UniProtKB/TrEMBL annotation:
It comes from the Bacteria. It comes from Aurantimicrobium minutum. GO terms for molecular function: kinase activity. This is Serine/threonine-protein kinase. Keywords: Kinase, Transferase.
Length: 45
């Protein structure tokens, strides 16, 4: 079935929102990993 342009634009917007959500989540996870690593480094000394 062929989608019209409006549907395609809506799909693209939804995909962009999902990509932004994933990027935000990955960034938060990276910050947690870095904080944990810094904490471990601090405990070594």
């Amino acid at each position: 079935m062929v989608k019209n342009n409006r549907t395609n634009e809506e799909d693209l917007r939804e995909a962009a929102k999902e990509n932004a959500r994933i990027a935000k989540q990955e960034m938060a996870e990276q910050q947690v990993r870095e904080a944990e690593e810094e904490q471990r480094e601090g405990q070594k000394y």
